[in-house]
Write a structure and sequence with these properties.
The chain is an alpha/beta fold. It is 38% helix and 16% strand. The chain has one domain: 3-Layer(aba) Sandwich (Rossmann fold). The protein is globular and about 50 Å long.
Amino acid sequence: MIKLIVLDVDGTLTNGDISYTNNNEELKTFNVKDGLAVASWTKKLSKKAAIITGRESKIVEKRATELGITHLFQKIDNKEEVLQAILDQEQISWDEVAAIGDDLNDLKMLKKVGLSFAPNDAVEYIQQRVNVVTASKGGEGAVREMVEYILQYDNLEGLESLWE
């Protein structure tokens, strides 16, 4: 059974674009459907979620708080190492983890988790090495598909049952 989902940000929770305003403020766009799936995972199912990302952004901090994500690590080069620390803290095994990533900096982590995902616009090398490639692109419902897949994988009811 999956107890923890691990999310990359750019290219999975977002479409991977990075925009800046004239005031040098960073802009990111998050998908509401992805957000509802993650919030359902953390708040309705009381399961754990983590964001481990190579970049740093105040916007990501805000989104993590909104979604009930308990573990947020930014500006990380070695995602596998950080995830091992989370697993030790939460007393969770690698087999109880699902992760989604889209590029080479996610590879080591994706290879170790029990269930790995990539959006359909992820780097081809990554797509060839994960368990599931979503039908959706990053930032366009890929994380929602991941959560729905996990619920079916673990023989749990779909997200709709949490809201009826």
